[in-house]
Design a protein that fits this description.
This protein has about 180 residues and is mainly α. The protein has 9 helices and 3 strands; from the N terminus they run αααβααββαααα.
């Protein structure tokens, strides 16, 4: 499909490019909110919020990690990550210590309780899949498409304007 054909099918000929229901950003925002709400009752018994769960997932994958490395893995800045880590530390799930090799770095490790929580959390992904509906291939394809979108957005972040082509696409698609 060409951009013109894609935009015509998405918005309809002459549709207002500022219609809320045509905005990709709004569809992503709504889906993100719904996913977070889906996780909430599953994480409550673990004593975790969704952002804390993401931190724990990263640490269950690789620990210890520096705060910087954790922020990079989660795409979070230290101003957002530090309060999450402090709460997890108060809950007894992680420890934060200075790296003896470089005192400027703070290392985050799982406590015994944080490591043990992993077993309780094992059921969460399956329950999320069950509640989302659809089949595994469909959800895997969606995750892959979102990964492609993230990489494109990362590449576009430092780019200048796309020029007239972007204006034409926006005027007809509402993206």
């Amino acid at each position: 499909m060409t951009k013109q054909t894609l935009s015509d099918s998405a918005a309809g000929e002459g549709a207002d490019p500022l219609r809320l229901d045509l905005q990709l950003c709004f569809a992503l925002y709504g889906a993100s909110n719904r996913v977070t709400r889906l996780y909430r009752p599953l994480l409550a018994p673990l004593g975790l919020t969704y952002p804390q769960y993401l931190v724990m997932l990263a640490l269950w994958e690789t620990a210890p990690r520096s705060v910087g490395g954790l922020g990079e893995a989660l795409d979070l800045d230290s101003g957002t990550l530090t309060p999450l880590l402090k709460r997890l530390e108060r809950q007894g799930l992680v420890t934060r210590t200075r790296d003896p090799a470089d005192e400027r770095r703070v290392m985050v490790a799982l406590s015994d309780a944080g490591d043990a929580l992993r077993e309780q959390a094992r059921a969460v992904p399956g329950e999320v899949f069950c509640r989302m509906g659809g089949d595994l291939a469909e959800l895997a394809a969606l995750r892959q498409a979102l990964g492609v979108l993230q990489r494109r957005l990362d590449a576009a972040e430092g780019a200048d304007s796309c020029g007239a082509e972007a204006t034409i696409a926006q005027e007809t698609s509402g993206l």
